[in-house]
From TrEMBL:
Signal peptide (residue range): none
EC number: 1.2.1.3
InterPro entries: Ald_DH/histidinol_DH (IPR016161), Ald_DH_N (IPR016162), Aldehyde_DH_dom (IPR015590)
Reactions listed under catalytic activity: an aldehyde + NAD(+) + H2O = a carboxylate + NADH + 2 H(+)
Broadest EC class assigned to this enzyme: oxidoreductase
An MF annotation (GO) of this entry: aldehyde dehydrogenase (NAD+) activity
Similarity annotation: Belongs to the aldehyde dehydrogenase family.
Listed name of the protein: aldehyde dehydrogenase (NAD(+))
Highest rank taxon of the organism: Eukaryota
Domain Aldehyde dehydrogenase: 4-207
């Protein structure tokens, strides 16, 4: 199926929507967030046959690998729902105790590779949402399976999560990706890809956000 190319205006709108959603999501109790996450896992289970068909037809992925990708995705989502966000009390003096808390970043951007588009997307998306952040997914523009997979995940999420928490933008160099990465409303970037591109990601995000890498050397 055809999909539109996102523009700078689409990116600005997505970031603003995510920032608005974040103000309430960050204060949602962790137990309630986990319920949303588990509902998302259940929806992906129901979507499994269609997703496997898409991976085998559009990506030419072998059926055992496609089955593994969906099973791993669901397992990671449910595993994320078992995580807790700890708070540590440190005794500063006889009169004072300091509490160490982990607070959410805000709006996170996730760049998904083409080889395992659903599995690697869920590996970043669900911990992000569980810890109180909002996320915008950016699949690679040259792989139909990755674009469709990302958009379909967003469609499933829209039926479960409140508006703005999980969005997906399909686009080419008209959108970025450098415009996406350097947007001042995005506070953290998750990237999986080559070392060469990873260096460009770090340079692009150095003044606006933090970056988490998973890079591989490509000869």
């Amino acid at each position: 199926p055809r999909c539109s190319v996102s523009t700078d205006e689409d990116l600005d709108y997505a970031v603003q929507s995510a920032k608005t959603a974040f103000t309430s999501w960050r204060n949602t109790p962790i137990g309630k967030r986990k319920k949303f996450v588990l509902k998302f896992a259940d929806s992906l289970v129901r979507e499994t046959p269609a997703s496997i068909s898409m991976l085998t037809l559009k990506q030419s992925k072998l059926l055992p690998l496609a089955n593994m990708e969906l099973a791993a995705s669901i397992s990671w989502i449910r595993g994320s729902a078992k995580l807790n966000i700890p708070e540590t009390a440190i005794k500063v003096s006889e009169e004072r105790i300091a509490i160490v808390k982990y607070t959410p970043f805000g709006v996170v951007g996730d760049f998904v590779p083409c080889n395992f588009p659903i599995m690697l997307a869920t590996a970043a998306i669900l911990p992000c949402l569980l810890t109180g952040n909002a996320i915008i997914l950016k699949p690679p523009e040259t792989r139909p399976s990755a674009i469709y997979g990302g958009l379909r995940l967003a469609e499933l999420a829209m039926k479960i999560f409140p508006p703005g928490f999980f969005q997906c933008l399909s686009g080419n160099d008209t959108l970025g990706p450098w415009r996406f990465m350097s947007h001042h409303g995005i506070y953290k970037i998750s990237f999986t890809g080559s070392v060469a591109t990873g260096n460009l990601v770090m340079a692009s995000t150095s003044t606006t956000s933090e970056a988490t890498w998973q890079v591989r050397h490509i000869v």
